[in-house]
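Can anyone check this?
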Amino acid sequence: MDTTSQAAVGLQLIEPGQRVTVRVPATTANLGPGYDSLGLALALHDTLTVESLDTDELVFDLRGEGAETLPRDASHLVVRAMDTALERLGYRHGGLKVTAENVNPHGRGLGSSASAVVAAVSAANAMVPAESRRGKDWILQLTSELEGHPDNVAPAIFGGLALSWQDSEQYSSTSANVVESVIPIVAVPNYELSTEAARALLPASVGHHAAAMNSGRAALLIHALTAKPEFLLAGTEDYLHQSYRAEAMRPSAALIGALRKAGYAAVVSGAGPTVLVLANGAGQAADALAFIETFTAANTPDIGWRVLKLAVDVEGAKVDLHRR
């Protein structure tokens, strides 16, 4: 008996003929000082549809971002995450048809892998019988394990501003409402930076003074996002990670520096290289968009930037299950 057959022993086969669609938002993590703990869901959505087949084949229909490079076999992140989730629930699949419509850029710091994992685990959870399904806290735990931290998966699951933490091997998160005047803007460059490469640049420890300064700014940032957006610039000041990563994304770091000097709350989105601006109101958002266009045209003409004015997604992952 091969390894796959051994792993399948004792697992129930999910019912063929089911179709689950999961719409999941992009996310931006850290938000400056909230390293590995703060995340925000953005109204930029990937859609994953998974159908259970009565054969053992894997069929892929991949569209949009990553369609030309993503694998079309069992090594695909969605299939691997579904396999893990189903096994935890006591089930396995026969064949699957995976249809992914991706609009979230990959390798840019907008949580594309977290969105895929959340979509896959949510789909797997929906496909098992109702009595075996688990709640969103279970999805948070498993997806955090798969990703290694909860800052991106939490807002993808719950929506809004997610405040997440870890006790030993237990992951937890709570959500907060962002004031309506806060408008996220992302400037996405045409180069990638892997999370692993970005993390490798960080020091093993930081000084007590830097840690104390950072904790004060993180607290202020939550207050700014939920009640007093006039403090966004001060609240997004970071002392833990952005300066160490700047050398790996110099065009992004230059744009962030210029934006902050001009009074805009600009930070690295996740591990980068996307630049996030948290604008206070439509007027500041329009000014920030114009500033980004002018600065990038003058200073980084060889880099293509995709600049998007977005909104905060307040719903998180949405699941729609159909049975034959």
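Reply from J.R.: I decoded it. The chain has a mean pLDDT of 94.
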